[in-house]
Amino acid sequence: MTLAKPSPHDSAVAAWHALAPEAVLERVHSSVEGLSDTEAQQRLEQHGPNILKRESQNGPWRVLFRQINNPLIWVLLGSAVLAVALGKVTDGMVVLAVVVLNTLIGFIQEFRAGQAIEALARMVPETVTALRGGAKVSLAAEQLVPGDVVELASGDKVPADMRLIAARNLQVEEAALTGESVPVRKQLPPVAENASLGDRTNLTFGGTLVTSGTGRAVVVATGDTTELGRISRMLGEATDMQTPMTKALATIGRYLTVAILAMSVVLLGVGLLRGYEISEALLVAITLAVAAIPEGLPAIVTIALAIGVQRMAARQAVIRKLPAVETLGSTTVICSDKTGTLTRNEMTVQALWTPEGAWTVSGVGYAVQGELQCEGRSVGEVPRTATELLRAGVLCNDASLHSQEGKGAITGDPTEGALLVVAEKAGMRVEETRGRFARVDAVPFESENQFMATLNEDGEGKRSIFLKGALEVVLKRCQSEGAAPEAVLSEMDRMAEKGMRVLAVASKSVSAAHTGLKPEDVEGGFTLLGLQGMIDPPREEVIAAVRACHEAGIAVKMITGDHQKTAESIGHQLGLAEGKVVTGQELAELDDARMQEVAVSSHVFARVAPEHKLRLVRALQARHHVVAMTGDGVNDAPALKQSNIGVAMGITGTAVSKESADIVLTNDNFTTIVSAVEEGRRVYDNLVKSLAFVLPTNLGLALILAFSVAFFPIQELAGGALAPLMPMLPVQFLWINLVATVALALPLAFEAKEPHLMQRPPRAPTEPVLSRFVVGRTAVAALVMAAGAIGLFSWEFRTETDRVGSEEAMREAQTMAVTTVILFQIFYLLMCRSLHGSLFRLGLFSNPMVFLGIGVLLLLQLGFIYLPFMQKLFGTAPLGWTELGLSALAAAVILPVIGAEKAWHNRRSSHATQAGASVG
């Protein structure tokens, strides 16, 4: 009989955990001896190999075409072709070189992305040990089929989704899939059908890691039908979001394209009406495209983002995708995983209880720094009952404590490691204690028993059995006298309310004749020593970081696979207590509209599955939020990719999460995200300053050209040729657009952050980059620049025509016009260092790169004017001191004009703020 291929959405497939092992074997038509080779081969043909399907990646040509398929690029390409056709080869080649440079930058950036599904595929092991016809065989993992019986041992990578049919002390690290902070102890009994992924303790999932124990399991899902495969599908469906700046630049590009094409057609018509030859009229249209398109802007944006990348790397944030730098500055919500990001990922005992008293424990993590306290004060000498409790925790324990890179570290189970650390804090030396109380025998922890027991001898012939485990398991083995069960349960509830994991510890004395532990030795007769409550505590610096986010208008949401009480406790300590804790099961029952409401109003989410994280991100985006999502596991990958800014953990993060993310934190610390947001806001401010600096130049150049076509006469040159009187040549427009603009705009990327950067709310995602303020500033500056350049060009041309002839006069006048625009840009740059504040707001010398850029440009401009080869290439002529002085005076007019505009704008904003306050 063959097994029908299950659908990934089949409810029966989703309920393997609710069935007994025998029922699962019957359902998959297998047995404890596994499948026969013949049956396995038939199922392999039916189900296919146990591998994840990989979507075909875009080839290099398609990626390359995407870089070219931009309206402004098409206009530039058309201009280059026309220029070459009209014999202006130099102009055409320069324009073409600009297109090639921008295309290469985008191509390299995009072609490196999109490797997440490849990383997922690498999580499946190469070989496994399976049973075929009752005999153990080594198989390639891709040959596994539903019904195969597989053996698991410590260190194995789980090859498929499987239902356990036998287990001994089996623990599996599932953090990458479920977000659970400690290894999961596996057991055989069925669990509730609606149990969350993390609570399906009788299943092992493909891609997870066996950390201890052994087991035997039957395969129930392979390849794309596994949980890993389901995440792979979600990853393929998740959408890479455009950044706010990317969207804004795309919108600007579309508007500019339409405006440039319309203006080119108008100027072409005006030129023909005024008697231009068709070739000259076309050249005017080409020149307009060259003048009005900000060719250097993509390079400016890319380099500004790259500078932000360097700064963030110094702050432990590695940027994988350049636009992520700018997106951070617009972030309105940060969704963070708990374990290792908000918390230390180091279990810490924080509370001790014995029938005689209770104590808190200071210090966090595996560092042996802290003490026992009572009501906030050190207890001094540790009480006898607390010593007995701590000693039992050390002896009934298989972990070890050591130092790693100067920090405390443990080997073994994190829970047991925490018991060793608290003993050291109380002055007990772990290795010395273990030497004095030698272990004789032990009953290891079994998931069915929920306890561990050891038999120890104290060196004087006295022997004791120590027992630790779940409270209900330990308590029923204790004598009725001693602590009242009600008091013990009440204390456990109190610890659990604080999100602590509670371990009970008990002991009993036995005779020296005991040489080993028998089942009846652990049945009863114990005395309860006490309880130890532990938790993975929040990082101390994260509390301040969350507060800083709130001050910056950024909501922080904790999304974890851990239990509800644990999440609630950590959320309260971090200041995220507003609203109720929502579980993944509750999220699954919400429709999209209600999901959006809950996603916005709630801040702590527990027992969350991968699809819930993805829905939460999409719900927040539907409410127009810019979402940063952090994570380290495979389960986080779809949400990381869907979010506007995916942030993966560099230390604990899986390869899948890193490939899906835009940013990787090298220290796995939430505070680094806050630093990155601050840097992102600074980058965005500086990009807006660059736009405010670059766009007036392009508009001003377009105005210069339009004015000359409409009003300047047609000149007869030597040889009788007719040519329009142009204030600048196309190649001179390119000189201004590329060399001058880039040399001056780049230093703006190094500007210091504006005051109160992290005390202002995030920029609304719908707010245009070209705000009314930027548009107004652009218009004012462009008019001043155009007026100065046109005025000096006209004056110089009329003055010099009678002396040197019209052709030479035109060269000198054009050189003077270009110089005026260059000097204008230098003065205007100083005013752009702070968009609203004075020239001295950020400190005159706070950014030495500004003066370096000015110095470089002045040297280049001197070469442009006076070097013979530059004169030949750009059609320039040398200028005298008078011409240079007049150009500087005309350009300097921008200083008082923009100063007055800033004062007016600030006064108006102040009045609006006061009016709003009075209304409030």
UniProtKB/TrEMBL annotation:
Where does this protein reside within or beyond the cell?
Answer: Membrane
Query: Which residues are listed as membrane-spanning?
Result: 71-87, 93-113, 255-276, 282-307, 691-714, 734-752, 773-793, 813-832, 844-867, 879-900
According to its record, how does it sit in the membrane? Multi-pass membrane protein
What PROSITE patterns does this protein map onto?
ATPASE_E1_E2 (PS00154)
Which UniProt keyword terms apply here? ATP-binding, Membrane, Nucleotide-binding, Translocase, Transmembrane, Transmembrane helix
The source's superkingdom equals Bacteria
**SMART domains from the entry?**
Cation_ATPase_N
User: Which stretches make up the Cation-transporting P-type ATPase N-terminal domain?
Assistant: 15-88
Q: Could you tell me which Pfam families the record lists for this protein? A: Cation_ATPase, Cation_ATPase_C, Cation_ATPase_N, E1-E2_ATPase
Q: Which family does it belong to?
A: Belongs to the cation transport ATPase (P-type) (TC 3.A.3) family. Type IIA subfamily.
Quote the protein name from its UniProt record.
HAD-IC family P-type ATPase
